[in-house]
Amino acid sequence: MKPFRSLLLMLTVVVMLHGVVARAAEPAQNPPKPLSREEVTRILDSNRAINTPQGINEQVKLRINGIDQWISVRGKDRRNPILLFLHGGPASPAMPEAYTFQTAWEDYFTVVQWDQRGSGKTYAANTEQAMLPGMSVAGMTDDAAKLVQYLREHYGKQKIFLLGHSWGSILGVELAQQHPEWFYAYISTGQVVNGRRNEEVGYNFALRRAREEGNTTAIRELEALAPYPGDGPMTFERIGMRSKWEMYYGGLAWGRKDYQFEDDAESLSPDYSRADLDAIAKGSLFSLNHLLPALMSTDFDHVTRFGCPVIVYVGAHDYTTAHELAEEWFTHIQAPSKKLVSFADSAHMMMQEQPGRFLVHLVTDALPLAQQAGDAAPAEVVRSR
Length: 385
Hints:
- This protein is globular.
- It contains 14 helices and eight strands.
- It starts with a helix and ends in a 14-residue tail after the last helix.
- It is of the alpha/beta class.
């Protein structure tokens, strides 16, 4: 039978090669038709399909504090612990690009993405007037608390994991301070520690790099901001100029000069419609108008005592939320347990910049805290002879 199988294999290869040669000989004036956005999103969604018996894949609209708020809930086994992702911004939803990094997480966690008040799907579902009363750190922390209560009750969990990224780390600290009993751990990612000090460190980084490189345009534009941040009110224009050059020198995504990779990923999101995508920019402008002062006035320098474990992830090149400030803050944290991980080849977007290492640390640093409490699906079966 072996020679027969080999003959079949040879014939298969010949047929395949014949097809390749034939296609190569086709006229160049008939290039393949580009895929539409709908076809691309269908392919992406098919490749991350959840078909396991205990799997969960839901998009849910919840009524929280007087407005409709959208969440996505995905995981391969609902017995796994829940991980709630608090996105950055303000109003930079992670749901539309989560498919680029989250799929592997879903083997170990039930991952909840939430479009916060003023953001993405939630912005599109409400009027600005309806959202306005809760557009504050206190109001959005209360939104998050109501969401956690829903997740615990609806999915039968005593505790969950809370991951705060960038702006979301402000809400994360506030919520972990108020209800530590709800969380296996607070996972700090791109932590905002002190808004004004963060601006100063990011500005100094960009100006230093510009001078090292002899970038006369960057030097001129940055020196025009001095003293920065100063004592006056912060404006979009001043922050935008600092951010422009900090991003150019890799403080947002290490080795990248812009954010195009993120915009491209969002544009093909299998979780967002075209209308949802259009809402992102509108929601960002609305939210920044109301939340920028709160972001700038954030000061967690002395908020260091936690009633739940704390895991701090920093990008070694992060100057969007300066890694030095998070590392210094970590040294003062008092918690049942704490751990700091620095991602050597990342800046602010470490879950996308080093997705494999980020997942490894979620599994080795966070998951055992739930496994110790018996809140995890059975491990894979390993057989040996």
